[in-house]
Amino acid sequence: DAVVSTNRVAAGTGTGGSDSDQLRSPHGIFVDVNLDLYVADCGNDRIQLFQSGESNGITVAGSTSLNPTIILDCPNGIVLDAEKYLFIVDQKNHRVVGSSWNGFRCLVGCYGKGSQSTNISSTLQKTFLSSLTNNSQIYYRDCDKQNFYYESIQVKVLESGYYTFRGSGNIDPYGSIYKIKFNPLDPLDNLLDKEYDSGFDVQFRLNIHLDVDMTYVLVVTTYESKGTGEFSVVALGKNKVILERLSTPVNIQLIYPLKLTEDSPTYYRDCQVPHCHYETLQIHVNTTGLYVLWSESNISAYGYIYKNDFNPLKPAENLLLSHGGPKQSSCVIGDQCNFHIKGIGLTLDDILRDELQPNTVLNNQSFSIKLSAGLTIIMFVAGLINSILSFITFQSKDAQQVGCGMYLLASSITSLLAISMFIIKFWFVVLTQINVSTSLSVLRGGCASIEPILKLFLYLDGWLNACVAVERAVLILKGVNFDKKKSKSIARRTVLILPFCVFRTLIHELAFRRLFVYEAAPGMSKINENPNNRYVSCITHYSPSIQHYNTAVLFIHLVGPFIVNLFSALFIIFGGARQRAMARTNQSFREHVQEQFREHKQLIISPIVLLVLSIPRLIISLLPGCAKTSEKLWLYLGAYFISFSPSMLIFLIFVFPSKLYMKAFKQSFNRIRRRTTP
């Protein structure tokens, strides 16, 4: 570690060091006209000037110079121009810097910013002095289970630009800088950069671009666990920076001794260690603020914090923070060995799961469950009455003179089947969740069949109503040339083919719908009512492409009938008005449109009502499956119930506003009454 001429040692002692007469790994030299020697002292990150005949050097560039102006990282080349300005190859900073009358500036490789950074002057702006003690705050660094003392420092920047933070002291410092805030519970969150340099000068160096309108936090800790001692941080950059201490000494509020024994309760934490003993503590907070809880023990302890309550059967419920154990989420069902991540779409199972209490009779369930059960019965009765009245209307020959009557007759049947499947679905979910010992074969059968059959009847009902609208539009188009026999023939074929067409779009549900079952550890039985420790959920496991297809099918079946109904109604009104305008010229086309609208306004109102009532089901089907429905139960449950109301409104929408169908209903009703009268 010396610069050697042919006759003598020009600089250095032959032993590496950082004293004024020493060098460490020198990489380049320059000799000026006065025979003064400039040395790029790479190992000490500095430029040393050895004047002719002198053995002690002067640091002219680098953080240890008399007037620190720039931070260098292993300079390996230097040149002096005629005006004695230095040009330095700053190797590990990947740049070339030069001096001028107002300090150093970057010339080439200016942190990837090119010429925008050529006027950066790295002058000493601030020195921060502090120490780490046994009362300093503690955190876990890089998922290490050891405790580290740390100090957090807020950095306020007055001008955007590149800055350097250099830490040193009688500790082995480790520096990190964060954007916005530092979270000791998650040291990787908001992390911009971190650095540790175990060189002889024991320091860290952070070179980073900072913006004036942003908050930054510099965190100083130690390389080894629980290191204490004094340290300093030097800030260099374009303009003044303000360094303010954020962390305060720890004020220990409580030390609570605990002990886990064979008699401690157990729960199912994860598949590697399914039978875990645990202890719970209730925390009462008198003053809102930031608190740190840590443990010191001779066991590998995991910690979890819950809000309100801890349910060992559902470790993810109410979980606020965890450390050391497996991460849990409300989007995940099961455990690390056997789990399912919920996708898009809320089901009745998802809405009611947290509200239903297992092994509890219906009378002892929550008010929401009992009220829902009552509403389903009311909806079934209303749907039954609607279907009976509609069937009475459309089974008569007068109502079946054209295809519309046949479509509506089929719709009266499918609407009854849809509302019946809705009732079956509700009670299947309620009873199987209450009775946890239900056979798995029964659960699998219900999971695979009930929901697809329910959708089949719902979608079929919507398309049958759309067929009615199309037939009415064709009637206006054909006028006196409308073929009633052909209309009935098309209706018969459509009623037979349409169920198969709808069913084909739902085949993917049968293929991907399955029952998800996972078992809890036996030790849980003594702390919960569930003796079987079995948890089941009906799930659909779609790939991204199948999920896109499923969403498209949903839109087609819910929005498609509305579009057909609306455009058919508009054609009836404007097409009918055009035909009348041609026959009766004494009125304007606008007057004919208004007259047509007054006569057929129910054709516009009906599809809009049906769409509005179907929108909640569309929204529920697109919501994430891990939405916390328990917080707004009636919002989700009410929307789910409303989406089935169109199946109860056929008589009110199609029969009641029509003079022809009301006449057919009265005639059929009178015939039935005469037959039943003794």
TrEMBL record:
Compartments reported by the entry: Membrane
Any one GO cellular component localisation term in the record: membrane
Main location: membrane
NHL repeats: 14-53
Entry keyword Glycosyltransferase: no
InterPro entries cross-referenced by the UniProt entry: 6-blade_b-propeller_TolB-like, GPCR_Rhodpsn_7TM, NHL_repeat
Residue ranges constituting the G-protein coupled receptors family 1 profile domain according to the UniProt record: 385-654
Region ranges (Disordered): 1-21
Signal peptide: none
Ranges annotated as spanning the membrane: 371-394, 406-436, 490-507, 552-574, 603-623, 635-656
Pfam families given in the database record: NHL
Keywords carried by this UniProt record: Membrane, Repeat, Transmembrane, Transmembrane helix
Keyword Ribosomal protein set for record: no
Protein's UniProt name: G-protein coupled receptors family 1 profile domain-containing protein
Originating organism: Adineta steineri
